Amino acid sequence: MSEQPPARPEVVIKTVDNGPYQIRGPVRLVDHDNNVYDLGPGRTKLLCRCGMSAKKPFCDGAHARNGFVASERSS
């Protein structure tokens, strides 16, 4: 009988209407300067989508203060 490989933890990326990207799961995020942000299992992070966050790449709520609008749906 062959053994099944262990299940990989699920990674979920969700767009929040008029807000950030919500990322859940074990993700390793690397920015343009090769800084690594470890998003370990079970942790949820919000990534800036409006471009106005002072804590990029993470969301600081600037979208709500600046009237960011984006609620497109995938097709």
TrEMBL record:
Could you name the Gene Ontology cellular component terms for this entry? cytoplasm
Q: Which SMART domains match?
A: ZnF_CDGSH (SM00704)
Q: Domain Iron-binding zinc finger CDGSH type: where?
A: 24-69
Which keywords does the record carry?
2Fe-2S, Iron, Iron-sulfur, Metal-binding
Classification via InterPro entries: FeS-contain_CDGSH-typ, MitoNEET_CISD
**Which GO molecular function, any one, fits this protein according to its record?**
metal ion binding
What are the transmembrane regions?
none
Which protein are we looking at?
Answer: CDGSH iron-sulfur domain-containing protein
- Species for this entry: Amycolatopsis rhizosphaerae
